[in-house]
Amino acid sequence: MTATVKDYVVAPPVSVAAAWPRHQMLAFAVMVALLVIAPFVAYPVFLMKALCFALFACAFNLLIGYVGLLSFGHAAFLGAAGYVSAHSAKVWGLPPELAILAGTATAAGLGLVIGALTIRSRGIYFANITLAFAQMVFFFSVQAKFTGGEDGIQAVPQGRLFGVLDLQQTYTLYFVVLAIFLIGFLIVYRAIHSPFGQVLKAVRENEPRAISLGYRAEHYKLMAFVLSATLSGLAGGTKALVFQLASLTDVHWTMSGEVVLMTLLGGLGTVFGPAVGAFIVIGLEHWLAQLGSWLTIVQGAIFVVCVLTFRRGVVGELSRLLRKPL
Amino acid sequence: MPAGEEISTVFGVPVQALFGQVLIGLINGAFYAMLSLGLSVIFGLLNIINFAHGALYMTGAFAAYFLLQWAGLGYWWSLLLAPIAVGLLGVVLEKTMLKRLYHLDHLYGLLLTFGIALIIQGGFRNEFGSSGLPYAIPSQLTGGYNLDFMFLPTYRAWVVVFSLVVCVGTWVVIERTRLGAYLRAATENPTLVRAFGINVPRMITLTYGFGVALAGLAGVLAAPIYQVNPLMGADLIIVVFAVVVIGGMGSIMGSIVTGFTLGIVEGFTKVFYPEASNTVIFVIMALVLLVRPAGLFGRTA
Amino acid sequence: MLITRVLVLTIALIAVAAAAHAQISDGIVKIGVMNDQSGTYADISGPGSTTAARLAVEDFGAAKKGLKVEIVVADHLNKPDVGSSIARQWYDAEKVDVIVDVPTSSVALAINQITRDKGKAFLVSGAATSDLTGKACSPNTIHWTYDTWALANGTGSAIVKTGGDTWFFLTADYAFGHALERDTEAVVVKNGGKVLGKVRHPFPTADFSSFLLQAQASKAKIIGLANAGADTTNAIKQGAEFGIVKGGQQFAGLLVFISDVHALSLEKANGLVLTEAFYWDLNDKTRAWSKRFAEKQHGAMPTMVQAGVYSAVLHYLKAVEALKSDDGTKVIAKMKEMPTDDPLFGKGVVRADGRKIHPMYLFEVKKPAEAKGPWDYYRVRATIPAEQAFRPLDQGECPLVKK
To answer: What CATH architecture applies to the domain C29-146+283-357?
Structure first.
């Protein structure tokens, strides 16, 4: 019997009721506490980068962990939102909250279009067709004048959030990014632990049966895809403002590979996995920056080790140890 | 052209120039065909999505370079030895790692081979940088033919001919010989085939080795004309994937036909809209998958 | 519950510790060499630039003068986001005072902005965009070695004047390639030449056969390569295969370095015309220094980018010594005040817009038979005097230049 990706996904708890399971509430509290203290201990810009990617990974995980679809083109949403946010802040002069919203909306629209065309595919075909669309977005980004080609959009102004919070102050910016991450994280959590999430689970487990029960499986999958794209866009738009730069790196297909790495390492289908995976991968990139190509080798090695022996990922193994879903 | 005679053009490009582009496209298509052939064999017979194919193509080119540098063995030796070396590497990879994933979802094979590709590419980059190493065209194949519409380098003509022979040869072996029949049967019903006394795991290992040896062979063919550099397979792999998917995963004829066709389509794009020549394949793939989800010649899963 | 807490904490701390690089370094002049250490521009700059910087610190005699100088190195992978992260980290957390080198114009532009925001210093040797002394000029940046205008002017006008008056451009389809093509086309036309056609190839491209065919069909005397790195060398290599040079056409490399010629070998590259700011075999002083460089770099001769790093760091340290401070803006101003003098570029000056001035040279690549030893690649075709080699001060639209 062929095992599938979903067999390595740790299933969410049975109860869908409003109350959170206690251990998850505790883990969440710990995570928030750590993230609040962190900027005073470590370099805040690094942390903000990790937070943006953590959000991206959580969004990606929604699709692979809970719907079972591996998208190899998620960079399109991250990057497109980044470009739109950067452009609207720099050229149209939008305040940061509207700039980020513009980026997020763009990603949502893009997600709707691409999702509608691809959602009928499965497995490797889905991976390939999402890659194809992402490559088209990449090509557009290279050609379009407003993206600045390989220079990217630079010197993006950070401005004042809601006219009050000066985002040029590092700590203010950090806590805003943290808030955005937590909002995105909670949206993902709520989506999973809801009737919507239950239907997704049913579709993932046995699509024909779900359809026979009257659920329009494709609509649910599409909704999940659009949600995943939207939150990826939120991460991309925020990142553009934090780094004051939108570049081709964010739409290149290797970025799609990176988010797969983060989610796989953290734990597919776990709640906290993608965030943990993102922090580890970004941390590694930081540590190994001096060593050039060793970073690629280490990333490759992580992929190999994870797939061979560590399929549940860090948080997945952890939750198996504790026998409680994380 | 005598004065006063009109040059026939297609969208403003002289027809003669187009012939040249088509021929060039055919040559590029030969590479795509050979690379996607290996991928197709591996997927069709083993159900493995081999993302390491680009890295192994690069390894083949480097093997040719090493054979020349360290052993003084030239191109013709490399054509034989480099694919064997890469094939052996493939056998090792299959026996140590890929074997463990057969019972799992295809996608794990994709992720594993993606990781292997990163390791191989990173390792070579560490040692050799990214500038590219020189490898000369063998003296027997230098020069060219002055065709009316273009100057065709001998080496490029050789590439097309050789690739065609290899592609057709592989197709014949797999579809028309007993060995090929065993292979195809072994993937459809390994238990039964094993009951006939055929060593199925060994066949699988050898098939993977053969598939990647094809990639290595393509690498040797590429070494004299493209720079031998660690990243030569990196952007190529997603294109080759697109070719295999369009042709239909598992259809060997599909990959060969699509490979050559794509080369020609790309050639046309380079004349009329050159900036898009890297992206046209993905547009085609999206269109094909929307209309025929299993590819042009594919069998539905 | 405790275990959860501890484990989550440990994991978080590992990632956090990776970022805690804070090294306080006051009283030390910290030089950050940032370039491509392992990618397509590694041979042009890479570890060679670090060696050049170290030689400059050595020759300056920092130890004897009681000045503590430290060098740190980073690889920007030719990506502006990686480069800006490193620059921010360096300036904020590691007290780096000056960043040098930075090939790849997109990264240089990003660092130019960050350096200005933080009041540090930026000495560009590797990047080419003439915007650094034009629209994007900054009181914190000096563009040291060469730029797109100098290359276009040198190669373009010199070739047209010697008979290469019809051109076909092979351009890399990205902002830098377009800029190079635009600048060179302007120079060609100004000197009475004609552009017969152009084709834009994706960046990067491995196979140029189709584009070379189009270049051949145009029958232009000169095929201008408005690209860099692997694209240039691939185009030249395949051009040899398709008999471009034998057919009577000539390649003009608009951005070629001696390391590219070395990678191509004289068989393929002979006849190529290019402009550079430095060549190891120009005079006794350059030969002596290059020998020292080669000893540390496995026999490889320095490129103009690496030579530029030496020259820039040397002048920077002289300015710091004179000023007794490493405040970025002030040191750059001092560097503009003091004339430059080093064994590699001779005497020169830094203009108000941050442009360092020195002569440029038009080189032609020798035939294999003409080379008398390793790395004997160039013949000097023309020397462009410093005043004519770079864009006139009033044409750059630099806000720092008083009209």
So the answer is: 3-Layer(aba) Sandwich (3.40)
